[in-house]
Amino acid sequence: MPFSKELLRLKDEVLKEIQPMLSDVDAVAEANTLKVLDAMRECKVAAAHFNQSTGYAYDDIGRQKLDELYAKIFGAERALVRTQFVSGTHALATVLFGILRPGDELVSLTGKPYDTMQTVIGYEEPSPGSLKEFGVLYRELPTVDGKVDFEHIRDVITDKTKMVEIQRSRGYSMRDTLTIADIEAITAEVHRIKPDCICFVDNCYGEFIETKEPTQVGADIMAGSLIKNPGGGIAPTGGYIAGKDKLVELASYRLTAPGMGDELGASLANNRLLFQGIFLAPHVTAQAVKGALFAAGLFAKLGYKTLPRETDKRGDIIQAIELGSADKLCAFCAGVQKYSPVDSYATPEPWDMPGYEDKIIMAAGTFVQGASIEFSADGPLREPYNVYLQGGLTFEHAIIGILGAAQAIEDLNG
Ligand SMILES: *Cc1c(COP(=O)(O)O)cnc(C)c1O
User: Fold this and answer.
1) Ligand 1 closest atom vs CA 88
2) Peptide bond before 348: cis, by omega within 30 degrees of 0?
3) Is the CB of 167 under 6 A from ligand 1?
4) What is the pTM of this model?
5) Does residue 177 line the site of ligand 1, with CB under 6 A?
6) Looking at the predicted structure, is the pLDDT value of residue 344 above 70?
7) What whole-number distance in Å separates Cα of residue 319 and Cα of residue 303?
8) Digit-coded pLDDT (tens) for 126-153
9) Atom of ligand 1 at shortest distance to CA of 86?
């Protein structure tokens, strides 16, 4: 056994303690699998939808069926699911640029947005091509004690406010992740203040964590990445948008061109991977959540601060652990890398990643490049040396990788 006796003892203890939480996660996965299967039957998904297409790809029944299926699963009027979205950021930016016009105002209700969205908005300065450069105004409501400042939502929504952005996951901040109940309350409050204000949810990392999605509880439109939860670990690339008919239509004119929208775009990847991916997504998301629960439990026992804690209600698949030193952060990532299926012989090194202030270290031995639904970890080399752990296509792999990370830290001392 490559792991110390003490670690293996703690592993058994943690698995016993988190058993009730693991059962809850299984129950959500089962409910969501039923939801997906019902939608697949209603949409009459068949093998004929798995073909690739070429050129303009008019009448690509696979592409159209995938849009219909996502819309049904997410309780939305319409969806746009495309491998032509290069990432989650691209899908989110397509919503913003598709809907907002010069003079409109966008308000973030969840404080500072995810790093890559800041460049899209033109957050610090009007970055080339940003919303700000096009004359779209931006402001934000800072979070208070890690929570949305609910009482002050009415103060930031004005005549000019066309859209609010609500980021479900904490991303790499230490604020609380939003639950579906939180999103329901926030969107209700926004629509009470201004009924035509568009509630846009950044749903990255949130899909299938609960049995409802934002578009089923008041969000007008949402977007996310296919190399996170909804791709089930096998979608090779892509993103999705789902929401109100007219809003998704506007976004589709930005993805392709005005007048063309969702009526063309070849299925270059094998569509089966996207259908099978969304079928697997509830289960795979559950595997990732179970891994996060195990990591929270184990590292709490080892004396570290974890966020969320194993007993907290979860809104995404991310687990933060405060490691406290650069050595431990690097050892953690080396341990994760060692027990990865790809590039396991390599040792991760901190590097200057474009757009980030501090050096970043990451462990990512994934089949799909950068896929964070696969077991992976990263963190910036700065106080308090948090590592962010996410994903895991199988719970078994997550357990082994987390033990590997803990062992690598233990080995630092001798
Ligand atoms: C992952 C993520 C994004 C998009 O990131 P990509 O790497 O472009 O897919 C946006 N917002 C949040 C909260 C995310 O977690």
Assistant:
1) 9
2) no
3) yes
4) 0.96
5) no
6) yes
7) 16
8) 889 999 999 999 999 999 999 999 999 9
9) 8
